[in-house]
Amino acid sequence: MSPRSLCANTKRNQNILKISVFALILLILLQYYVMTTTEHRLRVLAIGLRNGNSLANLNATAGTGSKSSRLKTPPFSVLRENGSSVGTTLPLCPVVSPELIGPIHVIKRGPAPWNWLERNLLVEKGGRYKPEGCTSRHRVAIIVPYRDRDDHLRLFLQNMHPFLMRQQLDYGIYIVEQAGRTAFNRAKLFNIGYAESIKDYDWQCFIFHDVDLVPEDDRNIYSCPDHPRHLSVAIDKFRYSLPYDDIFGGASAISREMFEKVNGFSNVFFGWGGEDDDMSTRLRKHNLIITRYPERFARYRMLSHKAAVKNRERHSILTQNLNHSHKDGINSLDYKLKTKEQRPLYTRVLADVISTKVEDDTRWKDNPRLLQLVKEIGSVDLARAYLSSS
Ligand code: NGS
TM spans, by residue (predicted)? Predict the structure, then answer.
């Protein structure tokens, strides 16, 4: 072999060696990446779901936005020691749950079938859960007003259970369904949820939550601080900005103590709008300040739906109610409970929101139009005023 071809051969061998070493390093790095992400996903999976789910569902549960799998330091003071689960002797859970992952990928479309959800979301009957190895610091009832939105309900539960589990809460989800076809009364359903849930357990904190809102970051802790907290600060549909300072709709947290102090929500708002503003007025009256987490944590996706029917009377009811909150609320709550059952993923409360007093009142007998209006508006005075002006 000539010295020239010998030299070319050596060069080729060196190149092959270089490429092989490079490929080996790449392979090792790739394997390391796969191992660490899989380990993280399995850890997250173990919290909420059984093994054997599809990768799409793993993604949805584990979250894709956060590089660090666990939060080493609390981003802000998130939890306070305000009690513990009833009937356990385990040590208190850490102040900041080690299971938090930060931003979460929200499942917005294609809800899983009920039987899949029931097999894979590891909660107790009635949608109850408490952490296994420690005593939760918070007993939280999630109250969701509801009617005819099966897709939303499945998406809500699919997103929400793993989210709440990671926060190490002792919680229960109550879906409070309005029976009949009269205008939707969101606030009264909240009051009914409160009244029915405290019959089951000593809840210390209430989250009043719309079924079409799904949180995007689990650092948005569902606990109750000393003052009420408006949770849904930044919603995608509203370009992640707060419509106005006093807004209290969407999702909010109020301790039982404060909720009782302000006499709960008003019962007289039928149809869309105003009931949350009425609650803001109640809070202000009692010198309670609406608090909020920073926008980057309190982010939500809104599930798409048709616009609700607006309550044309909402502004006058708001004005009328300024001095009535002490007699319109949980102390005047009147409803007919049709069903209460512990389903696998939530407690279902089905109620007729029409006050029994209205239906039993014989004065309406001769005036079915007025009766209908009273049922829809919830106020005799307003119904009369409405009839005389129309
Ligand atoms: C106000 C409504 C609130 C409602 C808020 C935001 O105008 O009930 O808009 O609604 N108050 C009245 O109508 C008096 S939103 O567009 O975000 O769904 O919560």
Answer: 16-34
List the domain range (segments joined by +) for residue 101: 38-352
Q: What is the reported pLDDT for 307?
A: 85
Residue carrying the six token digits 């009425």: 278
User: What is the spatial distance between Cα 133 and Cα 130, in angstroms, rounded to a whole number?
Assistant: 9
The whole-number pLDDT of residue 30 equals: 74
Q: What is the torsion angle, in degrees rounded to the nearest 10, for the CA atoms of residue 376, residue 380, residue 386 and residue 390?
A: 90
CA of 279 to the centre of ligand 1 (A): 12
Q: Could you give the number of structural domains in the chain?
A: 2
Residue from 209, 235, 277, 313 to probe ligand 1 pocket by mutation (most atoms less than 8 Å from CB): 277
* 293 and 389 within one domain: no
How far away, in angstroms, is 65 Cα from ligand 1 center? 30
d(CA 276, CA 61): 31
DSSP state letter for 269: -
Ligand 1 binding pocket includes 277 (Cβ within 6 Å): yes
Successive 10-residue mean pLDDT values, the chain, 390 residues: 61 82 80 50 39 30 32 34 62 96 92 96 97 96 97 97 98 96 93 98 98 98 96 96 96 98 94 95 96 96 88 87 87 94 98 75 71 69 63
- Which pLDDT value is given to residue 360? 64
Which residues contact residue 154 at a Cβ distance below 8 angstroms, ignoring those fewer than 6 apart? 111, 112, 113, 114, 117
Whether 33 is in a domain gets the answer: no
Atom of ligand 1 nearest to the CA of 311: 13
Same domain, 303 and 362: no
* Within a domain: 265: yes
